[in-house]
């Protein structure tokens, strides 16, 4: 951890950001948003707790660190089983913490009961879970891995599993999903000093915020872009580290998802519900997100919609002249990962090229996150004979890319409120996207007044290359249709999605929360 840039654990910050798998090491929409937030508030100081998977997945920061970031610490959630203590015999000793394990079982039951009832988690559950894992007398990672009490607790849970489920695999699933919680507890025991904590997701980062709130009493807020539990469910549907021969049961959440995958989903859902319960306020991008969050246990009274915003003033400088020809180039700007469904884009390009022979497809984004998927996409490209017309460009400066585009596109199976679509509008470029997240609102408008502006492109179904191509071709070949979509996008982004409005709202939120924290700090609570 000491090799983190700007590692300075003794410094105090106005805001501590809790970031999982994003800024400053991973590029993407959420990272761009965090960058906007920090750089847009030079009068405030920020510290960052970065949670990553394992150290070997991250290199140097992908962004230049602003001066008002005064501290960064890195923590990793995978790899704890390589520690010497993890190699000991599991049932080597009693931990003398039977009462704590009993309370842990009671809390799990309360968590399950609350899910079946109102969905909201009682505050005592979050508080007591925090005390069970944080502090010198709490349940430790060693207790989880090696004690009789832990062994018995896992065996009791196994009784509820379908008959015939492999116990060894169930045991390692429970151990793997809970191990990172002790990394979070260690962070809490050495909590970075700040007036308030702000998580940009639920998941492990969100639950860390709940623990910090419980431990310090400092204000805690959540801003959620995509829905973490939904995205993890999509990920878990495709992972190959849960072999189906070990997990053949198809019941519950989804007929295509085995019991152990469901166990992971329930775990992430529980983390989310406890995160929501602990947060003083939850900020979301659009009403669709808000409704899903309420369904997942977020209190409606603490939810507020704040849309994304982009730098309209800067991006308008790179708009092409009104009479400039429309380049037959469409770019998918984002990470090359399964959730972006790059393969549908490639299949659609095969159809588009048959009607628009000079069409080009550009994939603009980092390729490091899932190299195996990147290779699959490139192999598909080659099999279609599209190597000369579809290009993997890696990360690029968008101000260099936008002037060369006719369309921005997304084929994602899940999104929140994509910044690249809004940035494209500000640069004078229409968009075609799948019907995910708030994309329909961005393309067609939200309110009656907004819809009157017109369509800024087109929306298509998920995983439908033919429908995608059918929407793209008229925009590339009909100048009048393209210019109408461009004008609608410009009008919509200037009216509803300007960065300055978003920054003003968050700045006000921060100042209010920091003011609330001052009496607590003076009383010795921080």
Description:
This protein has 20 helices and 13 strands. The chain is of the alpha/beta class. It has a seven-stranded parallel sheet with strand order 3-2-1-4-5-6-7. A six-stranded parallel sheet has the order 10-9-8-11-12-13, sandwiched between helices. The radius of gyration is 24 Å and the shape is globular. 43% of the residues are buried. About 2% of the residues have low confidence.
Brief overview:
Helices cover 46% and strands 13% of the residues.
Radius of gyration, CA atoms, in whole angstroms: 24 Å
User: Which parts are unreliable, with pLDDT below 50 for 5 consecutive residues or more?
Assistant: 245-257
Number of helices: 20
Question: What is the multimeric organization of the chains shown?
Answer: single chain
Strand content: 5-15%
Biggest sheet, open or closed, and with what strands and sense?
7 strands, parallel
- Mean pLDDT, all residues: 88
Domain module count: 2
The overall strand count is 13
User: Structural class, judged by helices and strands?
Assistant: alpha/beta
What is the terminal separation in angstroms? 23 Å
- The percentage helix is 40-55%
The coarse silhouette is: globular
Strand line-up of the largest beta sheet: 3-2-1-4-5-6-7
């Amino acid at each position: 951890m000491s090799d983190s840039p700007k590692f300075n654990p003794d410094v105090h910050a106005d805001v501590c950001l809790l970031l999982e798998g994003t800024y400053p090491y991973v590029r993407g929409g959420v990272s761009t948003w965090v960058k906007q937030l920090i750089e847009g508030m030079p009068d405030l100081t920020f510290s960052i707790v970065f949670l990553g998977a394992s150290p070997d997945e991250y290199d140097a920061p992908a962004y230049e660190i602003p001066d008002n970031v005064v501290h960064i610490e890195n923590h990793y959630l995978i790899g704890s089983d390589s520690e010497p203590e993890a190699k000991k015999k599991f049932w080597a000793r009693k931990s003398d913490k039977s009462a704590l394990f009993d309370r842990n079982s009671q809390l799990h039951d309360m968590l399950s009961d609350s899910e079946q009832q109102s969905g909201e988690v009682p505050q005592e559950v979050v508080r007591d879970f925090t005390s069970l894992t944080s502090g010198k007398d709490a349940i430790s990672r060693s207790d989880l891995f090696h004690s009789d009490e832990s062994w018995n607790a896992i065996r009791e849970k196994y009784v509820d599993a379908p008959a015939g489920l492999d116990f060894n695999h169930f045991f390692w699933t429970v151990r793997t999903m809970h191990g990172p919680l002790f990394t979070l507890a260690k962070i809490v025991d050495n909590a970075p000093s700040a007036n308030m904590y702000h998580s940009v997701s639920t998941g492990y980062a969100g639950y860390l915020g709940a623990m910090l709130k419980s431990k310090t009493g400092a204000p805690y807020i959540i801003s959620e872009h995509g829905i973490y539990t939904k995205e993890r469910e999509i990920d878990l549907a495709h992972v190959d580290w849960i072999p189906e021969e070990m997990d053949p049961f198809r019941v519950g959440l989804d007929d295509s998802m085995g019991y152990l995958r469901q166990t992971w989903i329930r775990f992430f859902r529980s983390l989310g519900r406890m995160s929501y319960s602990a947060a003083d306020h939850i900020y979301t991008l659009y009403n669709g997100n808000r409704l899903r969050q309420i369904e997942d246990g977020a209190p409606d009274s603490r939810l507020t919609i704040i849309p994304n915003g982009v730098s309209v003033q800067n991006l308008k400088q790179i708009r092409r002249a009104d009479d400039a020809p429309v380049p037959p180039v469409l770019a998918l700007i984002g990470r090359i990962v399964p959730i972006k469904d790059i393969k549908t884009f490639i299949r659609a390009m095969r159809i588009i090229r048959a009607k628009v022979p000079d069409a080009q497809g550009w994939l603009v984004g980092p390729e490091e996150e899932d190299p195996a998927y990147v290779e699959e996409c490139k192999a598909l490209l080659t099999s279609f004979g599209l190597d000369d017309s579809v290009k993997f460009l890696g990360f690029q400066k968008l101000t260099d890319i936008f002037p060369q585009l006719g369309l921005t596109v997304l084929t994602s199976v899940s999104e929140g409120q994509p910044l690249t679509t809004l940035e494209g509008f500000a640069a004078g470029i229409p968009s075609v996207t799948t019907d995910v997240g708030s994309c329909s609102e961005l393309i067609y408008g939200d309110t009656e007044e907004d819809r009157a502006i017109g369509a800024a492109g087109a929306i298509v179904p998920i995983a439908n290359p033919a429908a995608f191509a059918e929407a793209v071709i008229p925009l590339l070949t009909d100048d009048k249709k393209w210019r109408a979509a461009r004008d609608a996008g410009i009008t919509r982004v200037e009216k509803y999605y300007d960065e300055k409005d978003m920054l003003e709202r968050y700045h006000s939120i921060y100042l209010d929360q920091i003011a609330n924290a001052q009496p607590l700090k003076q009383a010795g609570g921080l």
